[in-house]
Amino acid sequence: REKLLEIKDLKKHFPMDSKTALKAVDGISFDIYRGETFGLVGESGCGKSTAGRTILRLYEASNGEVDFQGDDVHGKKSSKELKKFNRSMQMIFQDPYASLNPRMTVKDIIAEGIDIHGLAKSKQERLKRVNELLETVGLNQEHGNRYPHEFSGGQRQRIGIARALAVDPEFIVADEPISALDVSIQAQVVNLLKKLQEERGLTYLFIAHDLSMVKHISDRVGVMYLGKMAEVASSDDLYHEPLHPYTQALLSAIPISDPEVERSRERIVIEGDVPSPIAPPTGCRFRTRCPLAMDVCAKVEPEWQEYTKDHWVACHLYNENYNDEHKAREAVQ
Ligand code: SF4
Ligand code: MG
Asked: 9 C-alpha vs ligand 2 centroid, how far in Å?
């Protein structure tokens, strides 16, 4: 396995005033391997979109590193180096309509990256590339002369995918690419993304708000809560042996009709709202809603640890020094 990206203690804070900041992403670390789909999951407002954008350098990082093939994306770069990154790393947006310029033809939208990076030597070559891309995503040449509003949601997402592919990227952040689409169309877009991954060896960071959505496409999954990573594991491990109480709760909320999810666990209901990312709880951020919270959880922030091989978690239940309280409670029950 080759690490394509290493994300190290990445933070993105948005200042509110001189004293406060919205800590959208507050120190996350994980790797993304070449050719895999890494699913990033969490409730809305947990920072997953901000994480995706900061990884792509659409936002400047407040702290930390994003190493792409060993080179920090956020480090000082010449404009030539920046261009190289912009070409290698692309984004597919949640709302394809909002991300497509309504006054441009589909042809010109798709060709934007080709023009910026000078990837076509002539008008004919440019058109040839655009037509190939249209076909690749299941559209046809004639569609190139039309405008975004003439297309359905699913077709617009195909246009967004063609635009991302135009510069031959290696890594794509797909930010809830199917959430806004009809259920009947979702599978088509997912299948297209999978096909493209196989053909082109693409690596995806696939952002979604619930675990059932990323289950079938992700090799590994990361669960975010309030700007922090709660757990990262292979899809198999995460779905069958979730460690973090938050992951367990998210999984127990997936409808029972899903036969692959183990049902031996009781349903865990998390109560209350997600606290504000401006003033997150001390200690463990999940403690205000965690059914297993201990005294230590308010005082000490759980460390991000590789608990078993390739299975990362941030929770005191998996720390020998802190889980006595939990064990004692279990013994009484
Ligand atoms: Fe729950 Fe404590 Fe673990 Fe946080 S550290 S998830 S509050 S048990
Ligand atoms: Mg979002």
From this structure: 20
Cα of 255 vs centre of ligand 2, distance in Å, is 23
State whether the beta carbon of 156 lies less than 6 angstroms from ligand 1.
no
Kindly provide the ipTM of the predicted complex, given to two decimals. 0.97
Atom 7, ligand 1: residue with shortest CA distance: 287
Residue ranges of alpha helices (H) inside 102-202 are 106-116, 123-136, 153-165, 183-200
- State if residue 245 touches ligand 1 by the CB under 6 angstroms criterion: yes
Ligand nearest to the CA of 180: 2
Closest of 58, 73, 59 to residue 8, by C-alpha: 73
- The residue ranges of every structural domain in the chain are 3-332
Superfamily of chain region 3-332: P-loop containing nucleotide triphosphate hydrolases (3.40.50.300)
86-108 per-position pLDDT tens digit = 899 999 998 877 889 999 999 99
Cβ pair 65, 6 in contact under 8 A: yes
